[in-house]
Specification:
CATH class: Mainly Alpha
Enzyme class: lyase
Strand content: under 5%
InterPro entries: Alginate_lyase_dom, Chondroitin_lyas
Organism: Kosakonia oryzae
Number of strands: 2
GO cellular component, one term: periplasmic space
Order of helices and strands: HHHHHHHHHHHHHHEEH
Strand order of the largest sheet: 1-2
Pfam families: Alginate_lyase (PF05426)
CATH superfamily: Chondroitin AC/alginate lyase
CATH topology: Glycosyltransferase
Radius of gyration: 20 Å
Amino acid sequence: MMLLRAVLFFILTAATCAAASLSPPAGFMQPPEQKASGDKTVKCPNVPAPFTGVLDFPSKYAGSDSARATLNPQADAAFHQQTLPITDMERYISRQVTAWAHSGNAQYVACTVAALDQWASAGALTERANNHTGRSMRKWALATFSSAWLQLEYAPQHPLNAYPAQQQNIQRWLGRLGDLTVKEWHDLPLERVNNHSYWAAWAIIATAVVTQRQDLFTAALDIYRTAMQQVDDEGFLPNELRRRQRALSYHNYALQPLVMIALFARANGIDALAENHGALKRLGVRVIGGLDDASAFTQRTGVAQDRAFLQHPTNLAWLDAWCSLYVCDSALKQRLASLRPWQNTRLGGDLSRLAGVARVE
């Protein structure tokens, strides 16, 4: 049944998309701001060394029970130390592209291209992934790189035209990472489909637009559709409820890439909001309600919720994208306005800038 559903969805999606090339949402196609400092000399920071080793990292929840909700401080420290070259590169690329978007200075484009070309030429992140954490790092990095690259690729000034060889090299490498991500996260058993799969789908759909590959686009939408089918009538994701005291946190985390996928689907003529009778809206309303009152999550899990994630604004950056999909009430709009700009490296950087598109009911 799952195979038949996937085949039918592939056919319908291919028919919808066949008539036109893939496009990002309008926010990803904006020109950069032109500021007086736009011509200042920029020295590119040192590029983190390409990570070419096997993707084999400890989980920060090592030793935890099946809920995977108790942080292991020693394992967490080891995870951050071993993955530092990758996360440093994510920050490097996001900061360069954001700086370009806010200044119009083409030297930030040069820094971005040189850095990604170096990693692409080295075949970074293409080795085998020995464990779940290794696979996770690959798709998170791909989400960062592709969502940042799109902003250069689709800018009206076409800044990448100055780098044809590097552009081809980088986009070929991103496509290769996209293939690996599909292989690792597509068609998993339902009990294993959770927030990680949704982040993989976000990385894949952004890469699909970068590379103009319908097969990647379809694979991402297939994972999205599976996610929507998992949302119950009350707006909960059963596989995230398993995280017990972190259930609210992981519902919030799962929602971030799903909102971005819906934006990309809409930009390509697909109504992702209709899936499973408006499942995305049920999920979002449930999470938004939980930001101030987590009692519904406490009741479903039987434990008080850990709300520490609210201390990090990057975890709520998706709300600006949410309010470009749905009409948000004045209270939420005021909450957003007071903390703008909203930043999330793996969702494209400055979400306040990228998500400023037309609203729908």
